[in-house]
Amino acid sequence: MDSATRPPPLCVDLDGTLIRTDLLVESALALLARRPWMVFALPIWLMRGKAFLKREIARRAGLDVTLLPYDERMVDALRRAGDEGRLRVLCSAADQSLVDAVANHLGTFELALGSDGDRNLAGRRKANALAARFGERGFDYAGNARIDLAVWRAARRAWVVNAPAALAGSAALVCDVDRHWPAEGGGVRAWIRALRLHQWLKNLLVFLPLAASHRFTEPGAVVDAVGAFVAFGLCASGVYLLNDLLDLPVDRQHPRKRLRPFAAGRLDLLRGVLAAPLLAAAGLGLAFWVSPAFALVLGGYYVLTAAYSLKLKRIAMLDVIVLAALYTVRIVGGAVAIGSALSFWLLAFSMFIFLSLALLKRYAELQSMLAVGRSSAAGRGYAVDDLPLLQALGAAAGYAAVLVLALYINSPESLVLYDRPQLLWLVCPLLLYWISRAWIVAHRGAMDDDPVVFAVTDRVSQIVVALCVATVLAAI
């Protein structure tokens, strides 16, 4: 096809257009997940310009572009454009090394242009570069942001991708709009999923000291416990966002976690970066309202959870110990919030039962990896060969929890709190049944990645919990 009959080049933006993410934020998060101390270098690099910042981050991040959430509509359009004989140009403000990596991975571009460490190829600079190469109105351009209006002014036609109708209307004022593809997903539902509001069920543990001490008839104690519940929820949601942002490459290799809003590109990463500390700050502020002592407990929970997200979850066995501790901290927080003494029996029981659940979580994840033919869990310190060991350790921890409960029933503390403590013996076989059944379900590959979700949604688990509650109430 000669130049006279060849269609105009199709120039495509990268961030938010070809991929449903931002490479600067993505690579910065990848860097900080491996080297958290590099956060202090970011403002120093930024002082030398945004292009320099991008270059320094890209050099160190080690970003795997094969895992990025590509917009399949755009990828298909690029393949069709190639069949039509169009020159396909990837033109992005991302660093040139990342632009080249994406172009090589897809194999759908004849030319790749990016920032070079000195010049940030965005807005007017991008428009001038494309106009100088292809002439004014000599190319079509696909973009997604208001900064792309400068490029569309120099383009023949606009492709408005992953953007609202308002931007398509603004683009129509400066050139012809060839097509408009609104963003898919996102919105309130995506945020609810990212915040994992269903995981707030774990925070019901803060009410255990209230129930165990039989103070649920005291209004002040109930209000403080509710405040502690909400404070833990806000803080935990902030940590979930942080964990998802730092775990993007790992989640994208998981059969189910790849569908999480940030991993799938359904939510803006920068908004997640801003929301995570705001939620944590709100939780800590509410914690101070409950009591300064409770705020210290919640602060310790946040530090331990952040350490888990950054490093500890990658260390085999230490990760499950920390997970069990994080469950137990909720109980400690509930006791501190209402000013109740910590029960040795409750702490011992919680540590063993939650260690069993943490091992169950890792076991289910490895089962998922085994089902798709993988030998290990990405970002974790386990291989599928560890499955029998995890199963044995998890079952033993669960049975140890029931043993602690059995010893508690005949303790002096139990005789003080319960009129009919002998009825509590009925809870032991119920727990033994539930723990054994949960591990059988996991062994058969039918366990959710999160045992808490399984316990809440499983009908048998719901019946067991109801029977346990009824038994405890009858024993009072």
Write a brief structural summary.
The chain has 21 helices and six strands. It is an alpha/beta fold and 476 residues long.
Describe how the helices and strands are arranged.
Blueprint (H helix, E strand, L loop, with lengths): L9 E3 L10 H12 L7 H5 L3 H12 L10 H12 L4 E8 H11 L4 E5 L8 H11 L5 E4 L5 H4 L4 E5 L3 H8 L3 E6 L5 H9 L12 H5 L6 H28 L1 H4 L17 H22 L1 H19 L7 H21 L5 H28 L15 H23 L2 H6 L9 H17 L7 H7 L1 H17 L1
Parallel strand pairs: 1-2, 1-4, 2-3, 4-5, 5-6
Structure overview:
The protein has helices spanning 23-34, 42-46, 50-61, 72-83, 96-106, 124-134, 149-152, 165-172, 187-195, 208-212, 219-246, 248-251, 269-290, 292-310, 318-338, 344-371, 387-409, 412-417, 427-443, 451-457, 459-475; strands at 10-12, 88-95, 111-115, 140-143, 157-161, 176-181. The chain is α/β, with parallel strands linked by helices. Strand 2 (88-95), helix 5 (96-106) and strand 3 (111-115) form a beta-alpha-beta unit. It is elongated and about 90 Å long.
